[in-house]
Design goal:
This protein has helices spanning about 25-30, 50-60, 75-90, 110-115, 125-130, 135-145, 160-170, 185-195, 215-225, 250-260, 270-280; strands spanning about 20-25, 35-40, 65-70, 90-95, 120-125, 150, 180-185, 200-205, 230-235, 290-295. By secondary structure, it is an alpha/beta fold. Helix 2 packs across helix 3, helix 7 packs across helix 8 and helix 10 crosses helix 11 (about 270-280). It is globular and about 60 Å long.
Length: about 300
């Protein structure tokens, strides 16, 4: 049931369930493996992919209050939140990591946020690291001019978001053996793994350095469900320098995939996921006959 005053999300007309598209890729077929794309990038043109699944329950819980959330200078989550605010008539505040950025021209990602009506508030990196501390969070809210805002954590990952992503796994029950997704904060993956059925495995490809994500995902699942859920594992070999970083090798790979299959490949998450799957299948990581699904959680940013 919606909260009083909560926005009508059905008016945004999300495309759910998202399409499942099989692609013929010789790197997989010669190993007897089928590759399918779960096209979450087609759910909504502005609230793309896992951003819809994670934001929708939080927008409902906000019940019309302003939204305050967090992200880096190239955050897909900030862009999606700003777009949601524009579409639903909700004020949004984006707390951006790095106060030095406030003295520079805005990059295309943050420019889009501002054009969608988001008010940006830059904080130094030390404060940003302590943003979950209640007193620090309260001070940030006051300084940003939104002391009574509904707070959505970085990447949109909280218990509500995790439960919102369970449907992603449920949509793939009986249709995959392995479901892989690129991981930032881990919320999408936590819900996906919980939603899959018996005999299905979730594979996460972290895009950040640090090796902390296993503990974070377990904590998110405990918060959302009370315990760890699903058969899942992470492969952290495909970060390509860390968050918001790419390499010429990765860009060449992504362009080749686009030319092979006519599907746009978002560079910061999806390219790393697909690269990791190609490397894994060539290592013999998947059984002959396996159906491997890659969740395309984003689309290339046009600026």
């Amino acid at each position: 049931m919606s909260n009083p005053g909560s926005p009508d999300l059905s008016a945004l007309r999300p495309r759910l369930p998202s399409p499942l598209q099989e692609v013929e890729d010789d790197r997989f077929t010669r190993r007897g493996v089928r590759l399918l794309l779960k096209r979450d990038d087609l759910i909504h043109p502005d609230l793309i992919g896992n951003k819809w699944r994670k934001l929708a329950p939080n927008l409902t819980a906000a019940a019309g209050r302003p939204i305050l959330t967090f992200g880096g200078a190239y955050s897909n989550h900030l862009r999606a939140t700003a777009a949601a605010g524009r579409l639903l008539g909700l004020p949004t505040v984006g707390v951006v990591r790095g106060d030095e950025l406030s003295d520079r021209p805005l990059n295309p990602s943050l420019t889009r946020c501002v054009s969608d009506g988001m008010r940006l508030h830059f904080v130094d990196r030390s404060t940003y690291r302590r943003k979950t501390d209640p007193s620090v969070l309260e001070a940030i809210g006051r300084a940003a001019g939104a002391p009574d805002a509904y707070v959505v954590p970085e990447g949109g990952s909280n218990a509500l978001a995790v439960r919102g992503c369970v449907t992603l796994g449920e949509e793939l029950r009986g249709r995959a053996d392995v479901v892989a997704v690129a991981c930032g904060t881990g919320g999408t993956f936590a819900g996906l793994a919980a939603g899959l059925g018996p005999g299905q495995r979730a594979l996460g490809i972290p895009v950040l350095k640090g090796g902390f994500l296993t503990a974070d995902i377990e904590a998110l699942q405990r918060e959302a469900f009370g315990d760890r859920r699903g058969d899942w594992s992470l492969d952290d070999r495909f970060q390509f320098g860390g968050y918001a970083r790419t390499t010429p090798e990765l860009d060449t790979f992504a362009k080749d995939f686009e030319e092979r299959h006519g599907v746009g490949v978002e560079r910061l998450y999806v390219a790393k996921l697909l690269y990791g799957l190609v490397a894994s299948v060539e290592e013999g990581a998947f059984e002959t006959g396996a159906r491997v699904v890659a969740v395309t959680t984003g689309a290339p940013f046009a600026g």
